[in-house]
Amino acid sequence: MSASAPVEEQPGHTLRTPKISYGGQAVLEGVMMRGRTFMAVAVRAPDKSIVVTSEPLPKHLYSGIIQKIPLVRGMTMLWDALGLGMKALMFSADIQMADQGGDAEPDADSQPAAASLSKPLAWTTVAVAMIFGIGVFFITPLAVVGLFERLIGEASSLWSNLAEGLIRLALLVGYVALIGLMPDVKRVYGYHGAEHMTIHAWEHNDPLDPAHVATYPPAHPRCGTAFLLEVVAISVVLFALLGTPDLWLRVLSRILLIPVIAGIAYELLRLGGKYPESVLMKAIVAPGLLLQALTTRYPDESQMEVAIASMEELLKREGDLPQPSVAPTAA
Fold this sequence. Notes:
Elements: E1 7-10, E2 13-16, E3 23-27, E4 30-34, E5 38-44, E6 50-56, H1 59-62, H2 75-97, H3 111-114, H4 120-152, H5 157-179, H6 183-203, H7 210-213, H8 224-241, H9 247-256, H10 258-274, H11 279-295, H12 301-318, E7 329-330
Parallel strand pairs: 6-7
Antiparallel strand pairs: 1-2, 3-4, 4-5, 5-6
């Protein structure tokens, strides 16, 4: 990426149109940011310092031919949510536990190892998370619909798949709403908002400091929450085209078509980011923005500082660093 991204004037702000669309995730007392070739994680340590680490992304996923193939590149989003997300989460958990046993300072040499996805425990956790997600959000709605079909007889393909989609949506909304009642998750949702607001500030060519970041909303149209909602909507349409074959065939189709659904949802997110002023794109991303009222919270200044530190580390590695505003402790 070039050192300076082209910009286009917008009322009230200068909207940046960079070659890279930055994204990220919230973790325990921290934020992970992802670019095209690097990822960065910043975490607020128990001693209130900000610990930062970064590393290159897998070239075959982010710089290879996969990124040039529509639909197939949607699998990158799944890797973001599971692979990079788990690595960042393990790093943040390691920082939070580093002062236990009398060690107030985290061991810089041990942090990358603790966050490594080569560990069997990490891969096992990712596998369990995938199985749980597929079971709860794809198989359970189908099982409920199948039970009702046995009790009242088969409904039309449209109504059957619509009911399945509504159950899936209810489970998704209920899940994010219920876990949002937990104090620790509320903190994570605050970091989620800080991540979005920091990206907004960067995209609008504003300085990366809490005063400017605070002027932006905690929702963002490219959020993974919007991705999940689009997955639900696309699944209704796609599964309706398959009709209502035997239950075991429907279960198999729900599992095998997950990559296809993810690919379509990812392309819609890309279009939404490419054409943010399009009326059609605004209509498509609007439900996702509404759902983010459940998955984001307005952050405090200390949370914004962590998100900014993560973003600045990423921009430094990508070669597009603005004037620094937070001085993190390097991991």
